[in-house]
Amino acid sequence: xxxxxxxxxxxxxxxxxxxxxxxxxxxxxxxxxxxxxxxxxxxxxxxxxxxxxxxxxxxxxxxxxxxxxxxxxxxxxxxxxxxxxxxxxxxxxxxxxxxxxxxxxxxxxxxxxxxxxxxxxxxxxxxxxxxxxxxxxxxxxxxxxxxxxxxxxxxxxxxxxxxxxxxxxxxxxxxxxxxxxxxxxxxxxxxxxxxxxxxxxxxxxxxxxxxxxxxxxxxxxxxxxxxxxxxxxxxxxxxxxxxxxxxxxxxxxxxxxxxxxxxxxxxxxxxxxxxxxxxxxxxxxxxxxxxxxxxxxxxxxxxxxxxxxxxxxxxxxxxxxxxxxxxxxxxxxxxxxxxxxxxxxxxxxxxxx
Length: 353
Description:
With 353 residues, the chain is of the alpha/beta class. It is 27% helix and 23% strand. It is globular, with a radius of gyration of 19 Å. InterPro entries: Peptidyl-Arg-deiminase_porph.
């Protein structure tokens, strides 16, 4: 699993030349993957999973198993809980004992960037638990850099505080993010859009950053972009809306869609927007329930999307099948995890091939 590091690349990073300055860029999620990385949920404290831990672990296994139909899956697990993870996960899923707190690996794991020669760097943002929302995140604050070192890859540590779920990229230098995340005083106090854009260039090769307003009412992540949209290809994305005018999400989705319409990418193309409706639950929602279909994982040859045992599941599957022609669409019941505020994309991080 350890990779060979170019001495020239290591020297360039040591001299202060960032990945962006060396021509590295974060690939689009539809690009080929070497593996999918996840992290095992184990914390049963009341401010984390509490009595819902077993259901979350069962749900986690369903997601990992589905993704493993398409590509290698590697699960980081706290050494004290690695044996349990190994016993519950299918044999084709690797378990890697490393110190971690929780399973939202899109936010805590590294961002992998790649250059034209196929070289890969692990780029790590500062993780402060979505603006100090929860205690006991010290291990998660270090897991991104720890995994990069474990893989034997060069590490770039960004001074920017943020999370992978706050970004979507097209692999050509376009980044879409939200003002309520990276400009939030609980992450990067005093930083301007220009400041954030500069650091995103250095960390992941951003050439153009599209800013959406985000969601001030979403209290955990402050409005991550991966609950709003996903790229189907460069210049094409799926955007999720809420069709119910009585739902507060209807206004939030509308404001973000309005800001997105007419935007051009780093290559000057106007972005094509496909629409998908958010899930509707008959059972009562909690204030943290995540009902996003676009919070999905794009794998090698397939897309793993959520289901919520609701009539909107079938329509979502059809829309994904049209947006990703030739790809197999698998739906995974997410009711064991969605009430904690996240989805499949939040749990996963792709490592490019």
